[in-house]
Specification:
Number of strands: 5
CATH architecture: 2-Layer Sandwich
Oligomer: single chain
Number of helices: 5
Shape: globular
Strand content: 15-25%
Order of helices and strands: HEEHEHEEHH
CATH class: Alpha Beta
Radius of gyration: 18 Å
Largest sheet: 5 strands, antiparallel
CATH superfamily: GAF domain
Length: 165
């Protein structure tokens, strides 16, 4: 006896939206790492079911300090989500705050920056990047990162998926 074919199920819109947000968050992090010549970074985003998700990666051939710097990056992400403002530590080795977050350990050389990710005025996550070299206080690292983090998601898809796996 032949069974009739079951109609194709449409994907659940919540799962589809969560997947789109995850892809967009990771794509944005990858582009930020490339554009800002960063070594690695972390992204947190709110999925369609109201849960926070986190992802991180380092670019090949660059110093991978993400595990070591996780407390600093997580604190910056939490701060930027709470205040809805970007934040930067220009020189990790000169920052008492980074030493405190690393429980007195000597921070590696470099700089970190974080900014909220927003679409149509609504914050849906935050992105943080680590550069292996300190940055000049006058450098517009935050401006570049903030501009990227508020770019329309539709424009992210049209670019090359730089460094995103």
């Amino acid at each position: 006896m032949e069974r009739p074919l079951a109609p194709a199920r449409e994907p659940d819109p919540i799962i589809q939206t969560s997947h789109v947000r995850e892809m967009a968050a990771n794509l944005l992090l990858g582009r930020a790492l490339q554009m800002l010549e960063a070594a690695g970074g972390m992204v947190v985003f709110w999925d369609a079911e109201g849960r926070w998700n986190k992802d991180s990666f380092a670019l090949p051939g660059r110093p991978d300090r993400l595990e070591e710097l996780a407390p600093v990056l997580e604190a910056l992400l939490e701060w930027t989500l709470y205040t809805e403002k970007p934040v930067v530590i220009h020189d990790l080795r000169q920052s008492r705050w980074s030493r405190h977050l690393l429980h007195g350990a000597e921070p590696p050389a470099g700089a970190v920056a974080a900014t909220p990710m927003a679409q149509r005025g609504a914050i849906w996550g935050a992105v943080a990047v680590y550069r292996a070299e300190p940055v000049d206080a006058a450098m517009d690292l935050l401006g570049q990162l903030a501009e990227l983090a508020t770019e329309p998601l539709s424009s992210l898809g049209s670019a090359r998926p730089e460094g995103v796996s």
